[in-house]
Amino acid sequence: MIEFTKPSVEYFELWPLLVVFGAACLGVVVEAFVPRALRYASQVGLALAGLVAALVGVVLVARDVQTYDDGAARGILAVGGTIAVDGPSLFIWGLVLALAIGGILLFAERHLDGGSSAFAGQASAVPGTDAETAAVAARREHTEVYPLMMFAVFGMMLFPAANDLLTMFVGLEVLSLPLYLLSGLARRRRLLSQEAALKYFLLGAFSSGFFLYGAALLYGYAGSMDFAAINEAVRNDVGSSSLLLIGTGLLSVGLLFKVGAVPFQAWTPDVYQGAPTPVTAFMAAGTKVAAFGAIMRLFYVALGADRWSWQPMMWIIAILSMFVGAALAITQSDIKRLLAYSSVAHTGFILTGVLGLQASDQLAVGEITSVQAVLFYLTTYGFATLGAFAVVSLVRDAGGETTAIDRWAGLGKESPVVAAVFAFFLLAMAGIPLTSGFVGKLAVFSVALAAGAWPVVVAAVLASIVAAYLYIKVIKVMYFDEPVGDGPSVAYPSVLTATTIAVGAAVTLVLGVLPGPVLDLAAVAGEFIR
Amino acid sequence: MILTILILLPLVGALVTAFSPAALARLVGIGFAGATLLAGVVAAVQYEVDAGMQLTETYVWIESLGVHYALGVDGLGILMVLLTVVLVPIVLLAGWRESDAEGNSGAKSFFAWTLALEAMSLAVFTATDVLLFYVVFEATLIPAYFLIGGFGRSGRGRAATKFLIYQLAGGLVMLASVIGLYVVSANSGTPSFLLSDLAAIDIDPITQRWLFAGFFIAFAIKAPMFPVHTWLADTTEKATPGTSVLLVCILDKIGTFGMLRFCLGLLPDASQWATPAVVVLALISIIYGALVAIGQDDVLRLIGLTSLSHFGFIVLGIFVFSPTGGTGAILYMVNHGIATALMFLVAGFLIQRTGTASIREMGGVEKSAPVLAGFFLVGGLAAAGLPGLSPFVSEMMVIIAAFDHHWLVGSVAVLAIVLAAFYALWMYQRTMTGPGTTPVADLDKREVGILAPLALALVVFGFFPMPLLDVINPVVDDTLAQVGIAQEGGQQ
């Protein structure tokens, strides 16, 4: 009989995590007790306050993290070693929180669609029935989306900070479940949205199963769920290596599904297209950041000593993701699907950075590290994606958002500012210099090449060419094609969406011109606690 | 400081122009272009012949990647800077009314994008950090894309996309090599992108070859060279002549500029290793470009393709590794800029009058517009290498160097003179002489004012190339010393 010891909770270090969770729970209470008329304001206020308080917490914690156990990493292991509050965790927390604030602003937008938000009036009403019409007429709206999103943010923070397989699984589920639900809540094109949610849920649940199975096998191998213990077991080469390899493979399936890597990318276009655009924006940016944080922690901390086994797999998946994503994106006629496939390609580029792991004694002084490169890329990608989807929500016609690309023809004349901003985000995704995307690409390609993965870098360069064509094609449609019929119209957003877009564009520009501070911050974040 | 000012002036000018009222935009734009010209002249005055890299500025830009904001010019750089600052005001004046025509994106955006392009080009010619060079090299493409796509004939959107894809493809291939240089420098101790740091590293021959391939493909697309030239004719056909001047006379020089500075400067062993292949490609470009030009019916396409031939000469001059060839090549870069600019602009004025770019539909222009015909002839003869006009000097130097390299190379190159005379004179004959279709108005004062400086420069440098050669010779010596070729027989 194992004796149960109560873990000590490091409240100060976990403050960001706890405040987001608290705000989410409080949101549920608000939903139950606050009158309907006041809910929107109180939910938005509560969520924003929670996120800002958490962000302040991240800064405070980051200011006085101490070196851990005289190693290279800084931070502490909290709650009995299950949560690692180290440099990379704090960086990712800060990034997720910043993206979530942008997400909340998009969620709260009510100017674009005649005074109502992008969410269904009553999700339980079957599309096309009287119940739905009644809900619309009563101007109902779901304010549950805010606590749901806060739960997802909590998951996104727990996931990359988890220091054992079980906590990581909890993080994965807490992050995923609210997103499944949010995907199905679109006000317009509800069937598409519900189909997307179901698809996301089924495949997601399936991939969680893979993850859990993998965790069990790894436990069988190492006799522990703890990453440090697994690392120890790998170093000492105890147990059966087939358990280790199969376990690693199954865990990879669960994690690579979340980032949408080929061959687990099938859900991305449908979900990105069907989900309400604010949800897509938040999900696309946030999930990728969190899941890559988790991937790096699992593979670097627990399986770093076994990297000769998993790096070849990463090579293949990175190359496949880049090419399949870019090639399929070209064939899309819907802008949200196009961005979805482009996100698959970006997953490949980020994996290029992940597989650029080198031991610290192989690096020159001041040379960029793999963690640094990936964290920087995630920052650039997160803000560009958030901004790009925010712009997508502006271009509309009578039926709501116009996501068919050929309907965007003439946008350059109709609304020069919107077209210019969107073109700028596309150029950033294409990795054109003086945008953040270029520096991100430069960083991940550099670490991969330094680690000797030149075939991946060559493939990445070739895939970048294919991807560049795709983004330029959209720019050409916006600027140089004649509009079809009346052409697109642009809805004027309230200050909420406008802020998100402006911040996204500003970050994209500043990180392209002066990436130094953020690269340094990622360098200061240093290594994971091992 | 002067180089930063030189870059900032047009950049600020582009922004100011873009946000100024439509009525004032052109005046603001030309004002900034004039100021940049002035700054360019100041830089040229400060420049000392035979003092290596000068007017340098170095600041750390991105510390964790070893990137610097580092500028400086040598003889090659200062000539390219001067060519740029001189051609841009001329292009703006030539596009004064045309860019406002029906269907175009408006004079304001033409002026703003042109100034943005000027700023980026100047940064390219003055960058002494490989990554800074790469950044501005790629950044030139965005203004160029909007200039091609926004102004000119129908089908330009497609042409712009083709242009951009070609250039980006080249750029991304080069990115792999740029990153390769970073890794090489990191392995040698300190990661850095500074040209001076990189030149000091002894890169092993096999790595050099890979890096060379990346750089060379990008520069060959830019230059352009056979077989990656196919964007050229489409672009010059659809874009306005002014845009074509910016692209062919300024931007394409980046290709040969980069070959000299990066391929020869940083990867000397690989450059020598690749010489046979490059020389063959250059010869194919020379002959193929001229032959295809002869067969064209579209004036702008024809002029675009002649550049393929000329760039073949420049690349040939660079890769025969002799003082004469190198000097000839750099001189050619300047002369080609002037002569081709003249051709494009005259052709533009001609097309405005006849309403067609088809040679077949023109004829007899010289009767009603003798001045126009005169400029057209000067430009054509310059392209054909007539003695007394400046391209002759550079072409001769390259051909002589080619014969020194190998008699076969020289004899193939010399064929191009015949072909050039053929396309230039035949084009003149078909458009300017013969029975006239409809009389056209001759050039007005503005147009003569635009063309005269170019024609004058052709004549002056045709007879007195020495000032240019004094600037060029030290660069060639330095470059060849880096490649490790002994200076046999001195120069001139």
TrEMBL record, chain B:
Taxonomic path: Bacteria, Bacillati, Actinomycetota, Actinomycetes, Propionibacteriales
GO biological processes: ATP synthesis coupled electron transport; electron transport coupled proton transport
Family: Belongs to the complex I subunit 4 family.
E.C. no: 1.6.5.11
Protein name: NADH-quinone oxidoreductase subunit M
NCBIfam families tied to this protein: NDH_I_M, PRK05846.1-4
Organism: Nocardioides glacieisoli
GO MF annotation terms: NADH dehydrogenase (ubiquinone) activity; NADH dehydrogenase activity; ubiquinone binding
Protein topology in the membrane: Multi-pass membrane protein
